Amino acid sequence: MAIHPRARDFPQSEFLGPIPDESEITAGTRIVPGRSYGFFTDTTRCIGCKACESACKQWNALPADNMALTGDSYDNTGALSASTWRHVSFIEMIGSGDARATEMAPYQSNWLMMSDVCKHCHNAPCLEACPTGALFRTEFDTVVVQQDICNGCGYCVPACPFGVVDLSAVDGKAHKCTLCYDRLKGGLEPACAKACPTDSIQFGEIGDLQESAHRRVEELHARGVSSAYLYGAPGTPGATGDLGHLNAFFLLTQRPEVYNLPPAPTRASRRTAPSLLSGLATVAGLAAAAMVLLRGRA
Amino acid sequence: MGSNMAENHPIAFRHVLQAKDHGATIVHADPRFTRTSAMADIYAPVRAGSDIAFLGGVIRYILENDLWFRDYALNYTNIATIIEAGFKDAEADGLFSGWNDKTRSYKVDTWQYEGEEIPSSLSEHLPSTTPERREHAKRLSEAPPPSDLTLQHPNCVYQIMKRHYARYTPEMVERVTGCPRDVFVKVCEAWAKNSGRERTGVVCYAVGWTHHSTGVQMIRAAAIIQSLLGNVGRPGGGIISLRGHSTIQGSTDVPTLYDMLPSYLPQPNAHMPHATLADYLKAETTDTGWWHNLPKYMVSLLKAWYGEAATEANQYGYEWVPKIVGDHSMLPMTVAMRDGLIRGMYVLGQNPVIGGSNADMVQRALAKLEWLVVRDFMESDTASFWRNGRLVQKGELRSEDIGTEIFLLPSSLAGEKPGTYTNTHRLVQWHDKVVEAPGDSRSESWFVYHLARRLKAMHAESTQARDAPIQAITLDYHLEGEYDDPSADDILKEMNGWTVADRKQVADYKALKDDGSTACGVWTYSGVYPSEDHNASRSRVPDAPDGPGTHLGWAFAWPSNRRTLCNRASADPDGKPWSERKKLVWWDAGARKWIGRDVPDFSETTPPDYQPDYTKKPKGMEALDGRSPFIMIADGKAAVFAPSGLKDGPLPTHYEPVDSPVHNPLYAQQDNPVVKKWLRPDNRYHEIGDPRFPHVMTTYRVTEHQSGGGSTRGVPILAELQPEQFCEIPTELAAELDIGNTDWIVVSTLRGEVESKALVTDRLRPFEIDGKRVYQIGMPYHFGWQGFAVGDVANALTAVVADPNSSMHENKAFTCALRKGRVQPGDE
Amino acid sequence: MSYPGKIDAVSGPLDRSEKPRSPYGRTGDSAQFRRVYDGPTYYGRNTVKPSPFDWKIATYIFVGGLAGAAEIIATLADLDGDPEYADTVRQGRYLALAGTIAGPPLLIAGLHTPSRWFNMLRIFRATSPMSIGSWILTAFGGFATVTAAAHAADDAGWRPRTRFFRKAARLMQIPAAIAGAGMSVYTAALLAATSTPLWAAAPRLLAARFGAAAMAAASAALSLGARRRRRYAAAERLEDFFALATLTEALIARNANTTFREKGVDDALHMPRYRAAYGGGAELLGTAAPLGLYVLNRLSGRRSERLAWAGALAAIAGSAILRLTIMYAGNESARRPESYLAMTQPGRSP
Amino acid sequence: MKEIRPGIGKRARGFLRDWSLPRQLAGQSSASDAARSTQSEALRPRLEQADKVGTVICPYCAVGCSQLLYARGNQVIHVEGDPRSPVNAGTLCPKGSATAGWLNSPLRETKVKYRAPHSDHWEERSLDWAMDRIAYLTKRTRDETFVEKLPDGTTVNHTLGIASLGGATLDNEENYIIKKVFGGALGMVWIENQARI
Predict the structure, then answer these.
(1) In the predicted model, is pLDDT for residue C10 greater than 50?
(2) How many folded domains does chain C comprise?
(3) Top CATH class, A25-93+104-266
């Protein structure tokens, strides 16, 4: 693997601070406010090493929160939570008895692993639900909970169509992946994507990522992995129900439910107006009826 | 094969995936379907311990179908060489000629080249592993190896190999390994295809091969295949040993090992003709090949150690170097401790009560010590065995009965001390000191240095001969910082070597002399600190994307910053690259020297058509022709047939693990005939197919933890990723025993009993071995009682038993019993 | 929506019937019905997270709805002008006031960082029913308080100018009633605009139902108030309306149940505890019983005081139980991946 | 961490400073700009607080990934992949990613612990005392067990009474000095490390 030529500009062993615009070396992209950034998680490259989980917790100083064997394959994390912002799911599909798979598709097959994360939806239901403005869209087109604002109302939790946001029992605030907002501000690639040994998690400008993701799908199809498809890119499963595209999107080889992803999630806020209006209409109707029924004899 | 690379070396696997992107085929042969298997194009399930049967099958497939790379193998290996007429192959009995049933060892005369004696390339450079020699035999400096390039001679290596592996048919492979024959053949096809001028293939192995009583021969088998296919010394080729600890390669090169002095010089041995330095040099110096330089390295080492006290008159202090009297490796060390021979012990960043075989015996052994010094960053399982260890918890040991005086000294970690690691690719990489270690934490260098200073002071007045080496040993290092740390730069400089007269750093090992005028601690590392202010291990310049890709500016690879060993083989016999695509090093006819993208691994100016003039009795490199890339081997050729150096045969032969569920389907000989066993009441082995122990167990690591586990079990965010001990059990076996997922189970052997939760999985499968259904189960060995992620000690199940060549234990394949439930007090 | 290429259908290890220990579905579920979604799940783990809302928010929904609807009815009664409604107007306005006083503490107690409650007023987000609601509550609280205060001042005989306070109350009750309408339904929108299956499956019906239930409960409460003050004519008219509102609620509930079933989100409602609360509490006690009692009362010719009380109290209790059940069963539905995955099948999404 | 509850005045001022409504009315988007808080405005990666950054090599497996260690004062604030390394190009596995967690492990020992024979507890001792005691024990055991010649007269100059285990997790320089002093000076032959396990 070629190293970015700019790496040669830093031959020293000791530094005084981070390498400027390090993400250009690690992710091939210079981070500029005003542009859209996200993750492309290619499950076919995932080896389930959980470097993303570890790097995320280490960077974001998140505590360990589950010290027990689940028995669910190698997944001892279970789900995304207030203190787990990357979660690798493991799905064993090798079959049993004589049905054990013998065909090994190129790249990941028969034991699926996927690093799940906040999707940073284009129309983010959590953000739209947040009544305080704690959840907001940053200058990098990512969705972040501002910890100095959040009052723990918890409404973003059920709003999320992917079960990502969670309230912390420790500090009473909502937490989720920030796409390393602080790192982006310093020109650094998000911790998980930087750590990912096999580039299963790729960070970049969303347009570039979508383009390379489509190329990857075509390449996999050409190699015989006809089941590969994108989840969360425009016009694909996941990018449904007015959510727009997902800034963190995925390449999958099995139906979304296998990875615990909804095939056609929706933007929660699109139910606000119909609900409110039909409720008001009912009340108005009943009020009109009341005017009649309550008419006094005076 | 023999490696779960994606799990245990994820970043190395990064490069595998990149190769995949460029069209490589990934094959994973393993008893378990692992995270590596999930990424493979072909997954070949093999029963643990049956690898030689599998690899032997591959060799047969290559030879029978004539798929080997003829231009390469004929020139660069000893495939055409003729072996002594008396050589008898391992037929049905499974034993080669020279077997002595009484001593249970081989005499290797008949394995030699016809009429010639071949010294071993291993650290004991004697031709035989027994000190006997064939005085009548010629030496390689007197005549070229006898060979038949037509390969018709019945005793040429090619014919011997063909006969030897004839029985390793795909059907036999399936019978022994359990791997379906069609899958096996697919592997053979894929492997053989990646050979020739345009293509190469690489084998990655790890302790899945070394942890066997036949481990060395497993790796040999891979070496034979790679040599036949022309996959050694070429880009994208080779046999990659994926090692397990940060500087485990360094601790082999700079050995804290009993049988070697730095850089593969043999430790003087009381049972070898090593009485004096002259004897030692005579016995160990090979006439031909690079090892002819051995005296320069040995004398320079002694000068580095004993400084001015090392003089020609006192054999440069040679007799102060302790002689070994047998196997002093970790396994017999355990036994010797248990038997009270060893009284004091230093444990330096290791956790033997978790990582050591027969872990209960290790604990009992530690309890017999008079004193024990443990240096670690936390209270490791080893440091706390007397307090809350497995045996104390079980009530089999009581604190008050343990008379060991124990010290736990906190140690500093990477980033808190400067120094180098040598990683798996021989890359010597410097790490900076950035912060001061907390409290009383100190480096190992500090500990040893200050201990030595105290001992020197205590012995300063002594006139006893035995104390002379303590007085003589040099400790000329600058002290740095608040705590008087010996300078790591100074130590590395000593390892690099200098000229004694003016203390000038030597540029590389070619500058070393055998007359006491140079001092050098580690000859292979010479060049890492070639001048006073140039520390090559600290260079941090990668190649540009359009550069050669060998990254010679990144750290230092020993020897001579060479990235690919034996890279003369990357050029054809005439010195031209095999192909444009696989170009690395080549002969520049104009400049009359070897050049290329890597540092050439050959005599710089020896042309490809060079032939030794045997009338002059050439020595060293002059005795090797221009087509001998394997310069560390006496004849310069890859030894597909190993005439010397191995205790268990010149060709890899399948023997069953010591604990095996079946009789060896290939030979009458069941297990390795020269295997090292320590049969005693606390270290019993299982009978063949013992019905009490029907299952095959393998131990392993997972991504989330490191070895004995302290460094990960003590880190909360890693501990939670694999929080408890578990045992992987195939679904079919679980159903038979009514074991549900996460139920408690007990695994037992004659060594011990271990409980854990069950992880019922389809990724493990039943094998049909020689007509018998055999279940493979597995358990990681990381867990112990200290830290955040705790669990029972898998190594309580394993036995002290070892490979005869390397003294490596056999923890990857043994038999066991399995039942539902938990360990009851008073069991066993 | 389709997935290109070959996707393993529900087979092999995904099939629960063949592999009882399969990690892909929860076992031991006693549900007797056929699930709409029978495909793979991830070890039975939830796909979305349940809300952290509990009885405090559910009670607020009930109280807020009651207050809002009470304000509406009081306003209508006031506008009608029949002096028979004097007590009803006062009670309605005070009930609304009581609701605005009880509501915020319930809401603040429901926050997990209650010291920052004021951030609810930091921003206005039209996409967030909770933000909308915060402002509605603020507005309603303001108008209802002023209305009630003016009413109290008028009752106390404070008359700086000609019936100033009465006029002020009359004026302020209009925006208060409009906000009251918001109060009675926004909470349904708040639940509907989530990914919780039971809440999101029928957004329109949920709000209509909450609105009707609020109107029913408020009219029931005010009818009781009228009866206590022996305003029988007012009480009977309120009871007529209360019956209509309850009937409306019952019809909406029927539709909602059908939708729940069709969308496959009603697993939770089949759990014994929620079946009892929902069927027995919200439906039977909240709608069937009051309607039955009302009809009985009407058929009996002369309305029985006891039956009227019983019916009204049943409706109020049922209305509260409805909110609690929807709250908790909703949270439970979020824990059930089958419910959410059923709801998010292509073409089924709300 | 101790939470200090701000006073009402401070909270009110904070609310006004972060109040989005005016900004929203001025036309900023309620989803993004108007909602941005003071903290978000000032946010920077903590790597920028480092006053010393060094290149280190991952202490776990043998792949030799290069890392940058960021420290402020004597405190390790983070360790992450070195983007320059041809080995890992900035990436790290889960263990490597948690290197800072190892250095800062809550289980780290910083004082010498001593357990007397047959004792049931640790005692804290000074490093100097421990070193003196270890030197004494080393000398005593060596003196008691040193063999100069075997019965057959072969010079061996070794002791079988002391063993040393470990090295694969240490530095080359440390291994060198261990082998040199333990082997070359003390005559120990039981010197082993993880390379054989």
Answers:
(1) no
(2) 1
(3) alpha beta
Residue D36 and residue D53 share a domain: no
State which residues form the domain around C240: 55-343
**3-state SS class at D72:** strand
DSSP state of A99: G
Domain annotation covers residue B560: no
Residue B128 has what pLDDT?
52
Do residues D126 and D192 both lie within one domain? yes
- Please compute the mean of the pLDDT values over residues B773-782 and round it to a whole number: 96
Judging contacts by C-beta atoms under 8 Å, the chain C residues touching residue A296 are 80-82, 84-85, 234, 237
The domain tally of chain D equals 3
- In this complex, is the C-beta atom of C52 within 8 Å of any C-beta atom belonging to chain B? no
* Binding-face residues of A in 222-251 toward B, CB within 8 A: none
Distance from CA of D39 to the nearest CA of C (A): 15
Residue D1 lies in a domain: no
ipTM above 0.85? Answer: yes
- Does B762 sit within 8 Å of C21, measured CB to CB? no
Query: Chains that contact D by 3+ CB pairs under 8 Å?
Result: A, B, C
Q: What is residue B376's three-state secondary structure?
A: strand
CATH code at D81?
2.20.25.90
Asked, for residue B638, whether it belongs to a domain, the answer is no
Chain B residues in contact with A13 by the CB 8 A cut-off are 430, 432, 538, 540
Element (H, E) at B385: helix B385-388
Last residue of a domain, one of B241, B276, B299: B241
Nearest-angstrom CA–CA distance, B640 and B55: 13
The CA distance from A218 to the nearest CA of chain D, in Å, is 26
Report the CATH number that the domain containing residue B683 is assigned in CATH: 2.40.40.20
Segment B676-680 mean pLDDT: 94
Q: Which domain holds residue D158?
A: 112-196
R_g of chain D, CA atoms, integer Å: 29
CB of C64 within 8 Å of a chain A CB? The answer is no
* Residue B128 included in any domain: yes
Decide: C234 and C88 in contact? Cβ < 8 Å.
yes
Task: Write the burial class of residue C56 (CB in 10 Å: 0-12 exposed, 13-18 middle, 19+ buried).
Answer: middle
Q: Which domain CATH number covers C309?
A: 1.20.1630.10
Tell me, rounded to whole angstroms, the distance of Cα A38 from its chain centroid. Answer: 9
Contacts of D31 in chain C (CB under 8 A): 125
Final residue of a structural domain among B225, B241, B257: B241
**Does B828 score more than 90 pLDDT?**
no
Contact D11 C115 (CB under 8 A): yes
Per-residue confidence (pLDDT) for residue C322, from 0 to 100 = 96
Query: What is the pTM for the complete model shown?
Result: 0.94
Q: Domain range spanning residue B67?
A: 5-241
Residue C15 has pLDDT above 50, yes or no: no
Asked if D122 and D180 sit in the same domain, the reply is yes
Residues D32 and D53 in one domain: no
Q: Which residues of A touch B549 (CB under 8 A)?
A: 2
DSSP string, B594-612: EEESS--SS-TT--TT---
- Which residue of chain B has the CA closest to D116? B405
Residue B160 one-letter amino acid: I
Q: Give the chain D residue whose CA is nearest to the CA of C131.
A: D30
**CA nearest to B48, candidates B215, B186, B243, B171:** B215
* CA–CA separation, D105 and B716 (whole Å): 8
Closest chain C residue to the Cα of A271, Cα to Cα: C193
| Residue at B442 is within a domain | no
- Cα distance from B506 to chain D (closest Cα, Å)? 18
B386 contact residues in D (CB cutoff 8 A)? 115
Nearest CA in chain D to C125: D30
The total of structural domains in chain B comes to 2
Considering only residues 135 to 154 of chain A, which have any Cβ-Cβ distance to chain B shorter than 8 Å? none
Give the A window 157-216 contacts with C, CB below 8 Å. Answer: 157-167, 171-173
